[in-house]
Every structure is written in C-alpha cells, then in structure tokens.
Amino acid sequence: MNILIIGLGSIGQRHLRNIKLVLKHKSNQVYALRKKFKTPLLSKSNFPISANLKKKLNVKLIGNLKEINKKKINIDVAFICSPTSHHITEAIWLIKNNIHCFVEKPLSHNIKNVSKLEKILKKRKKIKTMMGYQLKFDPIINYLMDLQKIEKQIGKINFVTINHGENVKDFHPWEDYTKSYTSNKSLGGGVTLSQIHEFEYFQSIFLDYKIVKKKSLIAKVSNLNINVDDTSSHIFLLSKNKKKIICNINLNFYQRPKERVLRFVGEEGTLLADLIKRRISIFKSKKKTRVINFNYKRNDLFLKEIRYFFNKIVKNKPISNKYNIYNGIKNIKFVNSLFQK
C-alpha cells in the first residue's frame, strides 16, 4: 500500500508513527509532501530529535500533488495534515483522483468550497473518507453520549458547561507560537476552528435536541501576538419535546493550567467529566461522590481512529457518516454559522 502524508508537522508525524504501528506486518511505502520543512523530527512526547527526518521516518519526499500524476506514483491512501486553509482543496484533489483520504480537523476555515466537495463526493462514492476527530474514540465522550444513563444518576439535566482552555504558547515548544497556523488567520487559525472538537461532540451528545436560541461572542481579547480569535463563548437553548437544556461552551488560547471539562448539572446532582485527568465525578446531595477513572493514553485515541480507517479500507466497507467527511462538512457549516452576526 502506498500512503501519502501531506504535512509533517506534529500531527503528521504522529499519524505516520501510528500508521507504522497499525500496519507493522504489511509492506508499505510512505510518501510525504512538505513545503516549508520547519518542523523538526519529533519524539512521541513532541520533543525535537536531532536526526535526519527523511531517513528516520523512511519516507520519499514530493513537492506537490501534481507530481503524483506527473511521475505516475500510485497513491492508495492520503492523510491531510497541512494547515487548515489547505484541507478542503487538497481533499477535493485527492477524491477526484480516486484516493482514499483522512482529513485532519477542521475540514476548512470557511464554507467556500463545500458545495464543490459535495458534488465530487457524489461522483466518487467508492472513495473512503474520514475526519480526524479522535475524541469520537474517547471512552469518556462515549460515556456522555447516553443522556438517559446520566439522568438516572443526577436527575433531569438543566444546564451543561463545556470549557476548554490552554495556552497557545505551549502547543509546539520547538516553534515561535506567532508562526504557528493556529495563530494566523490566513492559515485558518483561531481558537474556534482549532478547538472544533468541542462543537463536534456537543452536536453528537445533543443530536436529538433542536437549538432554539443561540448567542456567540468570538473575539481577540488577550495580549497574545496573534491575529485570530483567542476567546470563543457560546450559549445554546436546546429543546426536545417539552424538555429544555441550556448549554454553554467556552474556549480560550491563553489559559494555564490547561482545562478540558464538561459539567452536567441535574436536579439531583452534578456530573463532572475531565478529559485531561481522564475521570468522571458524580456528585449527589447527602451521598458520597462517585468517581469513575478511565485508563487510557492520549495516543490510544489516535491509534483507534487509524485502525478503524484502515480496517474499512482493507475490508472495503463503508465508513459511517458520523466519522467520514460528511461529518466534517456538517461541523464546518455549524461553526461558520457561529461567526455570522
């Protein structure tokens, strides 16, 4: 199998390491498309290693996508790990050329080429696609999908808060944070797009609910030297039959220590899910707090999504819409609506 990695930044290198683990007993050739060569070879812990990246990762480098057809390179599967603003155009090219593709989130920084992508997908129904939402494989997020189970423990859910804050300076210690794609508008950066995971699992958890009202505040408020939004706060009134829930989502690019928590406030108790500490705490009045610990490593989630993707390709089975590029389309349309005044 010939595999193409577009972009060898931290996520591109992570996927490449995981691909080699998942396909370790198979014969594969990996090609990599790099343009800027600014990210060094990284360890599993994301620390720079002093070694030749090309030799260490055993990849063949190409300069652009057109080179694939020009040199008649047969690519079976591609991973799009470039800056956000390039994702959708690269996906369109790959799908047009009958190449299965895995697209890192988000699908795009706007909805400009979405309709074009949708038309291509209708013509290439056999091509398998997947979005890089590794939290869909997080056991804590999957636990939270069962709202009935939660309400049996804390009563009717009235209010939910989702908070994700961390400092952009801590993302990539080897580089100047001001040069990162997350810090640059032209590359599709900003906290709202970069942390799109929160909007993805919000929509999945409350799939059966209708958003009756919503209010968004997206702004640059810190002293960070970036030209994108660093604060993103949203409130939604959700309704299902006669049941109503208010959900508040807050994201930022300057918080220390980092935090990623979901709080479900019910009429008989509160459930707190901590994605960093990997535990769920359930508080009930006059009763002892129940704590559920989850034993997994962050990279386990990336490995699970890679295994799922290749399993579907090898067995020639369809990829569910909750994982494929249609989910990416759904989410970029949703997030784009939050920017509308």
How would you characterize this protein structure?
Helix 1 crosses helix 10. The strands form 2 sheets. Strands 8-9-10-7-11-12-13-14 form an 8-stranded mixed β-sheet. A 6-stranded parallel β-sheet has the order 3-2-1-4-5-6, sandwiched between helices. Helix content is 30%, strand content 29%. The longest helix has 17 residues, at 298-314. It is globular, with a radius of gyration of 21 Å. The relative contact order is 0.15. The chain has 2 domains: 2-134 and 300-325, Rossmann fold; 136-293, Dihydrodipicolinate Reductase, domain 2 (2-Layer Sandwich), CATH 3.30.360.10. It contains 11 helices and 14 strands. With 341 residues, the chain is an alpha/beta fold. The chain has helices spanning 10-22, 53-57, 66-70, 87-96, 114-123, 139-144, 147-154, 191-194, 197-205, 298-314, 325-339; strands at 2-6, 29-33, 59-62, 77-80, 100-104, 129-132, 157-167, 210-219, 231-240, 243-252, 254-266, 269-274, 279-284, 287-293.
What is the CA-based Rg, rounded? Answer: 21 Å
Amino- and carboxy-terminal Cα gap: 47 Å
Describe the main β-sheet briefly.
8 strands, mixed
> What is the CATH topology classification name of the largest domain?
Rossmann fold
Question: DSSP strand (E) fraction?
Answer: 25-35%
At CATH level 2, the architecture of the largest domain is 3-Layer(aba) Sandwich
Number of strands: 14
